[in-house]
Design goal:
Number of domains: 2
EC number: 2.7.13.3
Order of helices and strands: HHEEEHEHEEHHHH
CATH architecture of the largest domain: 2-Layer Sandwich
Largest sheet: 6 strands, antiparallel
Number of strands: 6
CATH class of the largest domain: Alpha Beta
Number of helices: 8
Keywords: Membrane, Transmembrane, Transmembrane helix
Protein name: histidine kinase
Helix content: 40-55%
Structural class: alpha+beta
CATH topology of the largest domain: Beta-Lactamase
Distance between the termini: 73 Å
Subcellular location: Cell membrane
Pfam families: GAF
Length: about 290
């Protein structure tokens, strides 16, 4: 199903026209939230509500526009969620309540100077009851061309924003979009660091295994071959291994070479050292061929 945004026509009412002519136009159908909801899920933007880092945005909006209520609200299929809030303790509201469905149909500021005088909003619960909104101004928060929500201000008295206030609100909406993206990048970085720590733990365990399973037998083999080479055996055993004396020096050299390589690998990958511990020692041709 494809959602369509419909804006109700707004025009002057002829003097003397019947009150019934001011029939409140239907509220716009739910905005195209499917792709925006997917983008919010990618950003994990609704994981923490409200989020302290967005408090600065709503505080600046309240100061710049002189408004008692300011919000950074994000929209998905389940409703409006307040990422940052000033002047209210509500966590959010229904998708079809208030002005935001109208605001995100566009790509720029929606300003309503006097809500009771606008047939689109005069029967809205926020207008006819608490907090008795008169001024509404909201700018969409855009990410990858998706309207994720708005930065909006509301006031109890009818008025218009100045050009400087409109520009400030637009800038804060851009800042909110950028902050969502930065939080997403930070979360991805944290996840990558966790994965790297796990990989590093596996690597260190592998190196400990190499040290125990390879170097220890090599040391034993080297000691045994040295006994044969040096003749530190009884006569019968020495006679038995006499023919091995020609290969004993090469065996000792080979064991030493393998031990040196393994120690080099261990030193290169030792925690806190990493790559760059020096080149591998070159094997001599005679040892390399054995």
């Amino acid at each position: 199903m494809r959602w369509r945004c419909r804006r109700a026509p707004v025009g002057p009412v002829r003097p003397g026209a019947a009150r019934s002519a001011l029939v409140t136009p239907p509220r716009p159908e739910p905005p195209p939230v499917r792709r925006s909801a997917g983008r919010l899920a990618e950003l994990h933007a609704l994981d923490v509500l409200p989020e302290p880092s967005f408090t600065a945005i709503v505080a600046l909006a309240a100061f710049a526009c002189g408004a008692p209520i300011t919000l950074v609200n994000l929209i998905n299929a389940t409703g409006q969620h307040f990422k940052g809030r000033y002047g209210t303790a509500a966590p959010g509201m229904d998708l079809r309540i208030a002005f935001c469905p109208h605001a995100i149909c566009g790509r720029s500021l929606l300003e309503v100077p006097d809500a009771p005088a606008d047939p689109r909003f005069r029967d809205d619960p926020l207008v006819s009851g608490e907090p008795y909104v008169r001024l509404y101004a909201g700018v969409p928060v855009l990410s990858h061309d998706h309207a994720l929500g708005t930065v909006r201000v509301m006031d109890h008295r009818p008025r218009r924003l100045s050009d400087a206030q409109r520009q400030a609100l637009a800038t804060l909406a851009n800042d909110a979009a950028g902050l969502l993206q930065l939080h997403h990048y930070a979360a991805r970085t944290d996840q990558a660091l966790v994965r790297l720590r796990r990989i590093d733990a596996v690597k260190n365990q592998s190196l400990r295994t190499v040290n125990h399973e390879l170097l220890t037998p090599l040391a034993s083999i080297r000691s045994s071959v040295q006994l044969v080479r040096d003749g530190d055996l009884d006569a019968a055993t020495q006679e038995r291994f006499l023919e091995s004396n020609t290969i004993a020096p090469r065996a000792v050299t080979t064991c030493g070479r393998v031990s040196q390589v393994v120690r080099h690998v261990l030193s290169v990958h030792r925690p806190g050292i990493g790559w760059g511990a020096g080149p591998l020692p070159r094997a001599r041709p005679s040892a390399g061929r054995q």
